[in-house]
Amino acid sequence: MSSPPSYMTREDLSAFLLKPVTARPSIAVIDVRDDDHVGGHIFSSAHVPSSTLDHKIPELVRTLSGKDIVIFHCALSQQRGPTAARRPETRDVEAEKTGYGPDVEGTKQKIYILDGGFVKWQEK
């Protein structure tokens, strides 16, 4: 069984994103906001609205394959972001198929939820 995802602070995410690509882990930031996506986003994030997750999961799992760190967020990271990060499909399918993922011993992929979501990110 998967352990619950941890929370990542905006300061930690910012520090990762400010490093040169060659000097940091492979990161994917997944923004699951829906209509409230208007008004900005985190640089290099992928917008996958929570309302589309059911049919986008197979594509998302393929996209996240090989990423060292995956961070999910919504506006406040109180409901949609944590729900997406905890979905069994995003956490287990790739590990089962390829041997790479959060439940396979020896792998390094980590799944996080952005603490405070986009609202807190934007406050900085």
Structural account:
It is a single chain. By secondary structure, the protein is α/β, with parallel strands linked by helices. Residues 98-105 have low confidence and may be disordered. The relative contact order is 0.23. It is built from 5 helices and 5 strands. The chain has helices spanning 10-18, 53-64, 80-86, 88-98, 117-123, and strands at residues 6-8, 27-31, 46-47, 69-73, 110-114. Strands 1-5-4-2-3 form a 5-stranded parallel β-sheet.
Oligomer: single chain
> Secondary-structure element sequence?
EHEEHEHHEH
The total beta strand count reads 5
Tell me the major beta sheet.
Answer: 5 strands, parallel
Q: Tell me the fraction of residues in β-strands, as a range.
A: 15-25%
Q: Main sheet: which strands, in order across? A: 1-5-4-2-3
Short description:
The protein has 124 residues and is α/β, with parallel strands linked by helices.
